[in-house]
TrEMBL record:
InterPro entries: ATPase_AAA_core, Bact_Antivir_Def_Nuclease, P-loop_NTPase. It comes from Pseudolactococcus chungangensis CAU 28 = DSM 22330. PANTHER family: ATP/GTP PHOSPHATASE, ATP_GTP PHOSPHATASE. GO terms for molecular function: ATP binding; ATP hydrolysis activity. Residues 35-388 form the ATPase AAA-type core domain. It comes from the Bacteria. This is AAA domain-containing protein, putative AbiEii toxin, Type IV TA system.
Amino acid sequence: MELKELKINSISIANFKNVKKGDVNFECKEIPLNIIGIYGQNGSGKTTIIEVIDIISKFINSDSLDDNLFDMLEKDNIAEAKIIFTINREFVITYTVKLVKKIELIKGDLGMQSSKTFIEILSESLETKNTKKNIQSKKVTIISYEKETELFFPRYRFPNTKINKNKFKTAIDNSKEQSKSIIFSNQIAEFINESNNMDEGLKAIYNLINDRFKDNIFVYSNRISGLINTNMNIPIPLFFYYKSSDNSESFGVFPLPTASSAKLSSQELNVAKHVLEQINVVIPKIIPNLNIKIEELSKQLNDKGEELHIVEVVSEREGRVIPFRSESDGIKKIISILSALINAYSSPKAIIVVDELDSGIYEFLLGELLEVFSRGAKGQIIFTSHNLRPLEILNKENIIFTTVNSKNRYIKKTDIKPSNNLRDVYLRNIQVFEGDDSLYRPTNSFEIKKAFREAKRVGSNDISQFKGGE
């Protein structure tokens, strides 16, 4: 089975960070939208959605969770995430996972103790439904796991024989040890593909999700943005996708060097040149006269006798060349995600998820980009933003607002007439702040000023004594 189109329909989460419960619907009239913006107050759950998508993507790809994602969970508090997505406009897939963060004390030598934090999966399931009009279809469970029984379902597909028990136990133990998925583990994938009890159509769907979901979803988190903002010559993560002349696909994250000189293999240099060539078609239209180039300074051999290229990435404007590391954080961010955006514009199977898309990007340019994507993108773009310019560009169906209600974090405004300006309606709504699902927890400029004055006096006596004051 070939992946031709991929769209996220909805996400439901519970007990991640400050979101006790939240349902995010990316559809309009049961059709997944191609562009969705999430707006709301600081600390209201926008970034949480981005991070949960990252977690789901890692689980489906059988990757271990990063330690920083552990901080989204409260110790011993059960969290749940459910994503519904559509493949090829034919199969609606539901993936659900319940998990809990555990901290285990480990006794070492001489009575010393250390702690280990890990994620334990309590349940995990993958379901599918065929949406073709001429097919009477109900939801079918491909695989489901429950920790309480340590069994896999449906039982007739996953009989608990002695041989199978060992395979299943290995998958469960590896999940706990490495904080990764159980049902997408190598052991379970191997079992499914060797099984005679699994329908070939279900095998094809499972393998397609396991092999291609993460390859086509790019998650640009605040952590990545923070790396760019450090200005410490750390390579910039360059999200890329391109198709070669023989129709072979290349995709992933390439560490674009920003140091004065960096060593790249011949293959890495080839990827960098391909991606920058692609980017340079678009970047001058966004930032006039700008081109990004990779200059080869010299060559050398590594310990294995392989050729390495000593390179520097530079910016060129109207004949003037400067090191790329000297560019603003905003330009670095645009370059970092531009190849993925190009892919999302032209490929219906590409999904790009960006936290704080507006950060470092000029307001008018942001509006121009969103207008282009809202009219022509074939892929799906999900972003968070503080800048209100997109509210003037996108339709109400394309905007999700966060609320002050931790048990109902995400809503769409349905009471907006076509003649209304969404930005004005939003500003009026946050000023009213009435009801459980209001969009803004009120702040008061007088109270803020008062707090600043009081903060200055906190501990002033102790400080003066420390300085030797009277």
